[in-house]
Structure formats: C-alpha cells, structure tokens
Amino acid sequence: METTSGAVAQAPATEGGQQAPAAWRTVDGYLPATFPWYGLDEAFTGPRWLMQVGAAADGTVEHGSIGHGEEPSVRHESTEDRERFAVVVTVAANPVRHSPDGTGVLEATSVSSAAWLAGVGLLSFTWPGQMDHSLRDSWLDQQTETAWVLADDLSGPDWSTLSLPVDGVPTSFHYRESEFGWVLAGSTETGVHVGAYGRGMSAYGLGFAVIKDITTYA
Question: Which of 79, 91, 129, 169 has its CA 20 to 30 A from that of 107?
C-alpha cells in the first residue's frame, strides 16, 4: 500500500500538534489530479474545507482529502466535547507500476490503501489523555502500524459491511469503529477508491458524490 511519497491524509500541523490555518491549504495541489475528487453528497449542508494531497516522487497526485463539518484539532480521546467532522479520502486506482527512477516497482493501490490512509488520518487528531505529549510520536507510530495491519485484513473480524450511496448508487464499504472514531473504505464505479473517517457524525447516514468543481473550495 505504498501509494505516496510519505504525505498523510491530513492537514499540515503546526508546532505543538495543532492544525495549520486554513489559508495554508489551497486548491492548487488538487487541480493536477487525473481522477475525480469525492466528498459528501448534497445532503450534507455544513462547512467543507480542503486538507492535503499526497503525490508520488514524480509529482503525480495520488490521493487527497476533503473535510466536512467542524475542523478538528488534536484532542485527547477522553475529551467529551469533540468536534463533529467527517473527512473523505480519494485514492487513485493505480496498477502495479515502475517507480519514477526505474529502480523498483510501486504497489498497486486498492481499497486497503484508502482504509489505511483513513485510519492514519483519524489517528492524527487524537492521542491518549494519560500520555505525556513527548510520547505521542511513539504512540502514533505504533497505532499507524496497527492501522496498516487492519487495512490489510478487510475481511477480518475488526471490519463490518456498510452500504452507502456513491453518486446515488448503493455501494458496499468496509467499516470499523474505535474509541477514536470510525473508518470506512470502498471503491466507486468511476475507478477510484474512497476512504472516510470521522467522529461526532454518524457514518450510517452519509452519502458520497463526485465534486463537480473543486475550485469552489478555494
């Protein structure tokens, strides 16, 4: 599932783990994508905001995220007053291909790629309340590895199946919940993989649709 050059599906963080100002996130990075971007459908009437794109070493855009609801900040998972948000991650469907420098082979992207990016995205806005801030990086590394293992086993007991509309068509998603929030992932008829994560908003009532004009998010 090595789909990017290391970018994670989240907004940039500032010193101390707080989210960077929205002004840092521009539409320019989304425009070169050769695949359609997805967000929540028109049934969602709340705020929408850009997050970050991930690209290969040659600059090819491979995935990116769109936020919906209240922009999350890093919170202890014990915090009662959590933001209500959902983030949609779009991942280009790529076959096994040679690396840009010709020295290796890049893995194909899959639903597991979307599940892993969504899982890591959710973790990026959480850390245990009993943990010292200086230990958060080690905790995040450990949880990221766990998210990878879970994403590689979508038929395992940690996942259930959820049917949600994508462009109006009922679509099967892999779905799981944790103390941090929920994660889901599936594929679309347009040939991209869609992942999503959130908390405070129920995943069961969501629907997804192609974003007709990403520049409206600028």
Answer: 169
Query: What residue spans define the domains of the chain?
Result: 22-217
pTM here is 0.81
pLDDT tens figures, 108-132: 678 999 999 999 999 887 766 566 6
Strand partners, 185: 174, 195
Q: How far apart are CA 212 and CA 167, in angstroms?
A: 11
| CA pair distance 151, 137, nearest whole angstrom | 21
Is there a contact between 105 and 209 (Cβ–Cβ < 8 Å)? no
> E strands of the chain, at which residues?
38-40, 48-55, 61-69, 75-76, 85-92, 97-98, 105-106, 126-127, 160-166, 169-178, 181-187, 192-199, 208-210
**Distance (Å, rounded) from C-alpha 54 to C-alpha 85?**
21
Supply the DSSP symbol for 73. Answer: -
How many residues are recorded in the chain? 218
Q: Cα 214–217–218 angle (5° rounding)? A: 105
CA–CA distance, 115 with 29 (Å, rounded to integer): 22
